[in-house]
């Protein structure tokens, strides 16, 4: 069994425990039980977050598309559980306020409404963060693909540069050879001219 598979089993176990704790939180009437369940569920959610980060790193290192898709699915499931937990927690807090207070019920209801609005704001913020993280992952993958293309283009440029240097050396060698041939022709012409001058000189004598 791979490391990712072990992480996956642990994650599924955590998600089941979180689901059970949220269900218990919705049915508890006792304050102390609710507080204990809230603290325990918060710890489980933190563990699940840390585990998903490890799974995400493992998927990136392996470069496995299927692993990355699973990580995204688990993140969405965890995000949904976080939203359910916040709703259950807000409802529990509201019930505790209503049951433990004596006085102006309208004020208590306003407090509960404010808590619900704050909870909705937090949920929206978490959804935006999750979507942003998915976009960031896609951008990272795209940058990785672009880097491979750039490296490939650089290799081709280096190859062309090497061919250019070889051609430059070849042209330089041909130029030197041409110069040598011209010098030899000039030398031979000079010798022939000298020979003609000598022959003409002796003929005139």
TrEMBL record:
Principal localisation: membrane
Origin: domain of life: Eukaryota
SUPFAM superfamilies given in the database record: SNARE fusion complex, t-snare proteins
Transmembrane intervals: 183-203
Vesicle transport v-SNARE N-terminal domain location: 1-88
Topological relation to the membrane, as annotated: Single-pass type IV membrane protein
Swiss-Prot/TrEMBL keywords: Coiled coil, Membrane, Protein transport, Transmembrane, Transmembrane helix, Transport
InterPro entries the record matches: SNARE, v-SNARE_N_sf, Vesicle_trsprt_v-SNARE_N
A Gene Ontology biological process term: vesicle fusion
GO cellular component, one term: Golgi apparatus
GO molecular function, one term: SNAP receptor activity
Protein's cellular compartments: Membrane
Coiled-coil regions listed in the entry: 115-142
Family: Belongs to the VTI1 family.
Cited PANTHER family: VESICLE TRANSPORT V-SNARE N-TERMINAL DOMAIN-CONTAINING PROTEIN (PTHR21230:SF84), VESICLE TRANSPORT V-SNARE PROTEIN VTI1-RELATED (PTHR21230)
Protein name: Vesicle transport v-SNARE N-terminal domain-containing protein
Organism, as annotated: Triparma columacea
């Amino acid at each position: 069994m791979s490391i990712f598979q072990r992480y996956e089993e642990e994650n599924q176990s955590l998600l089941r425990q979180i689901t059970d704790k949220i269900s218990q939180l919705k049915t508890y009437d006792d304050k102390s039980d609710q507080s204990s369940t809230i603290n325990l569920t918060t710890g489980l959610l933190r563990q699940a977050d840390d585990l998903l980060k490890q799974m995400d790193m493992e998927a990136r290192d392996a470069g496995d598309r299927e692993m990355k898709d699973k990580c995204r699915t688990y993140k969405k499931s965890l995000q949904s559980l976080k939203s359910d937990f916040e709703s259950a927690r807000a409802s529990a807090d509201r019930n505790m306020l209503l049951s433990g207070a004596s006085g102006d019920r309208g004020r208590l209801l306003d407090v509960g409404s404010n808590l619900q609005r704050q909870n909705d704001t937090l949920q929206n913020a978490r959804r935006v963060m999750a979507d942003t993280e998915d976009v960031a992952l896609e951008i990272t993958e795209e940058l990785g693909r672009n880097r491979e293309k750039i490296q490939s283009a650089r290799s081709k440029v280096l190859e062309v540069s090497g061919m250019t240097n070889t051609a430059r050396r070849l042209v330089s060698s041909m130029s030197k050879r041409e110069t040598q041939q011209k010098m030899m022709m000039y030398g031979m012409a000079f010798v022939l001219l000298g020979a003609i001058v000598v022959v003409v000189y002796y003929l005139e004598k």
